[in-house]
User: Fold Glycosyl hydrolase family 43 from Polymorphospora rubra.
Amino acid sequence: MPLTRTHRRAGAAALAATLVAALAAPGVPAYAANPIVTNIYTADPAPLVVGNTMYIYAGRDEAATGVNNFVMREWRVFSSTDAANWTDHGARANIGTFPWAGADAWASEVEERNGRYYWYTSVNGNGPGWMNIGVAVGDSPLGPFTDAKGGPLISDSTPNSSGLNIDPTVFTDDDGQAYIYWGGYWGPRAAKLKSNMIELDGAVVTPTGLTNFWEAPWMFKRNGLYYMIYAANDTNGCVTNSNYACQRYATATNPLGPWTHRGVVLDQVSSTTNHAGVVQFNGQWYMVYHNANAPGGGNFRRSVAVDRLYFNADGTMQKVVQTTTGPPPNPGGPGQPPAGTNLAPSATASTSHVSAWESLAAVNNGGVPANSQDRGNLAYGNWPQQGTQWIEYTWPSARSVNRVATYWFDDNQGIDLPASCQVQYWNGSSYVAVPGQSACGVAGNTYNVTTFTTVSTTRLRLSITSRPGLSTGVLEWMAFQS
Ligand code: FUB
Assistant:
């Protein structure tokens, strides 16, 4: 079983010793929180969603302390069903996967097509030049993977290739056309891929508009708009020292550009390199990136981290807030309302604040949300308020209550899942926490049930504390006596 956050809080120290010993083996749970793995060093993460699972494909940094070079020989896979708790599946490809290669298992990305999984890798071939793009293929997200081509897909002998042929990102458009972008040393390149996914289709082009591109492109599409994030290392709003990098991004209305630069989406991280991927999972957007934050970490001993990514209403992206906690668990799925008689519809709702364009009526109108972004039955939000806000039920006479269920609203913009919450009741003179309450859950896309010792009250309150810089919202708040 993957570790939960509760486990982590309760027994992180005890678990550490066990995990350090156990994690060499595949299929072993990895730490949650950021970095997501701390028993080994991992870098260049590439997310992929398959069904209800998010995979992260990453390189492994094996440089000893004080070694100022990449020592990278294998690519590993991690998976999660909630973007918070991760399982390490071990190395699923390595330099030996490519008989023509000899070193440097650098950044990679996996793309699915017709049930096959194509793993595009940066690797040092034994031929002329330095880095190449190879491609392995497997029949499942975990492989086994074998060399798909018998030689590089892209090398220094590919006409118009990059000054450094690394960091492939492969994107398949709605019409089935796949594209590969790659490059380093300020040299982004792009090409179409044939439907066999292992041959370029036509000429390599030099995309325009990727301002200050350095390396590490990642392409995705949202609402019909193409996005490219990429590492830049300019000191013009990106980094304080050009040994480091940030993630800039650009958008386009055509998959081959031209691109329009939009700004910085991830600031400098604690490692000099900055490599990220973006993915939508269970209705929410995530950025997966690396830093040097694991104990003993450094520029060649990096670690993968995951955080939420938010879009503004105009499609621009907010800067990712780099956290040590990682995102809250997001198990997804519509969920079913808890059984029992819901006392909420018979109450009058009130709140500390409701946004003008949202509705407090949402919380007790009996709606059944499909997910945390579902506005179909109204949504309550308290934007632009931050910190602690509340919603409250008042009944004309006392009710006995010992359980609530909360379905949070998350608009992927200013309203997010809260940092914490507490159930309170009016004891005749003030609001106090209901006695014996279980954890007040903050997961999205589900009913968070909190139980407590029965109270008899006319007023029940849900106190909600936001995550930094964000507001909170509720789609449904149910109250029961079991
Ligand atoms: O991990 C080796 C190289 O460092 C990657 O290919 C680059 O993107 C940078 O992260």
